[in-house]
Amino acid sequence: MEEFKRVFGIKFIMVFTVTVLLNIGLFVYSSSEGKSMSDIRQETHYRQWIIGELSDMQPEEALEIADIQSDSVIKRKYDELESEEQTVYSRQLNKIKEQLEYIIKYPEDIKNIQNNADTLKSFSIFADKNSFTYNNIQKTAKDFKRVEGVQLYLTDNKAVSGFVTYYYIYYLALILNVFVLYELFGERENGMWCIVHTSKSGRAKLAFNRTMIITASAFIITGILFFTTFLTSFILYKTASINAPIQNIESFSRFSLPMSQLQYIIYDFLYSFCAVLTLTAIVWMAFVFIRHRNIAVTVIAVFMGVEMFLYQKIQPQSVYGIFKQINLIRLLKVNDIISTYANRGKGTFVVSESNIMLTVTTVLFIAACAGGILGTVYMRPEQKKSVIARIADKIWEMYQHLLSGYSITAKEFHKLLITGRGLIVIGVLAILAVYFVRYGQMTFSDGTKELDNIYITNGGKEYHYITDMVNERLNDYQCAVKDAQDCMVRYNAGEATLEEVTESSSTVSLYAVKLGRVSEFMKKQEYLQEINEKYGVDGYMISDRGYEEIFGKYSIIREAVLFLALAAAIILIVAENIVLEYRTGMNYIINASRHGRCWIQIHRALTGVMLTIILFCFIYGMDMYTMYTMYGMPYLEAPLMSLTFMEGCNPSFTIGQWIIIRLVKRFVVILQIYIATYVITNVVMVVRKEKTY
């Protein structure tokens, strides 16, 4: 119990909370696919409305009603919407039509699997009863017979389909379990290993307790990450049809077990728990046999990096395909393995890949636990240091000698970054920042890029070229319409031919297309005239697109995750720095120092402020630079209200000023978080110290 309390203390709770929030951010970010939250809500609204109208019908009837060309409630709803909303509505309607087509074809596909099995057995090359091919055909037909009676129907599967295709849960669960193991092996560095090794029954009991701890850790961590991710998916998409068959999702068309979506999620969790537990046990064994924790972490990171590289780069058809099949990373692709029907074997022995995975994880877990237990019992503390260890100690001694001559501020930085392992937190923060900033880049169409180029070359404060172009095309269109009307009058009077009417109609269509290409400029021009009359603002003719990605509605998720990651990094580094002093007893030395504890605390606080400033500048500097390279930041001197999504803001602000103001606001909040963390952690540690005495 004491071992459990030691590992799962305040530090673990903080790291675990940050990881859960990070996981939620990753899920929302990856699910958004560059869309804003309002776009997701709009898609969800239309999708659920369409499904609500069609769900009581037979699939064939619903598919006919879903045709936007037919006179139906679906068509009437489409006609009521604006052009941009119609695009979103049509996209959701097409996805629902695809789902209906899949539902209609599913029973026939299952029957075809049965019929194909009978057909293939009639060929002599597949008729050998001792061959793997024959037995695989037999097993396939038998397995899919179980889902013959599954009735599919139209439901909103977005919450479940989005959840089961999200894989970061497993990576984050494994990283958290490595953190738990790192804390478990603290005796390797604090001198307790010799005491544990010589205690009566201590080693065997410790090994057993740690087996229980890593099992509980894998279950709790995986379970909470699983639950919070599914809850987030449920909230994000407003619904989860958990009682519908899992085969309702098209990617599960070859899943051969009759399960509801809720049952599959539980099934998925159990397999995921086995995979995470197995890899955790392997990592535990590595920690046992590698004497130094930091070296163990390095070896594990390098090994998993190589495994990931091999898994991603090797093609299944390659001569090296075996390294992809037996890869440990493949164990984390749980849904791919258990949702895809595939068999392996030889001769009359045929087994599914999901059962192979379960068997492999069980064997590896038992072997890793046996290795970890035996290593814990029989490995002795290091008696003699190796040459490398002695060289490392000598280098460390020289470094400490040099450090002793530096200022108190430099020593505080050393404690924050090296002793408190702040560099690791900063490294993780940097990786996350790069991922979130680069991952969500919006790719614009060639037509959109052409419009943006016109904004840059001919827009801005003086945009006469764009105004003239819009007026010219509008005039051409109006003239074409007038000519077409005149031609129709002459045709009715018998003075024009049908060919002339057709030609005039084609001319109208041609000019209508040309006018449509500049409709964005027309709307922008009307908007600029409106804000000039309403607010007295002389707006610039500029594109909204890039700035919407930088600080508009499409930036909300990216900015929220970056802010939370930075705040979490500062909290972890600062809290660990203060806790470290109390854990090592350095607070007594500080309190008795010649200059007094206030002098030390002032330097410590200022060092933390400096680190906060450095991290803030690094994260948001990288964010702004990346946004600039992706989308550009033209016309920073333009009034902020020139952007249509900023109507109603302070008319005196420019775009550049607004970007700076937003950064200053974030910095103030981050600084407040640092101060709150510093004060609260100090108070908590003082209270805990007083309770100890």
Automatic annotation (TrEMBL):
Tagged with keyword Chloroplast: no
Transmembrane regions listed in the UniProt entry: 12-29, 167-185, 213-237, 264-287, 294-311, 356-378, 416-437, 560-580, 601-622, 667-687
The UniProt record lists the keyword Phosphoprotein: no
Keyword entries, A-Z: Membrane, Transmembrane, Transmembrane helix
Domain of life assignment: Bacteria
Protein name stated in the entry: ABC transporter permease
Organism: Lachnospira hominis (ex Liu et al. 2021)
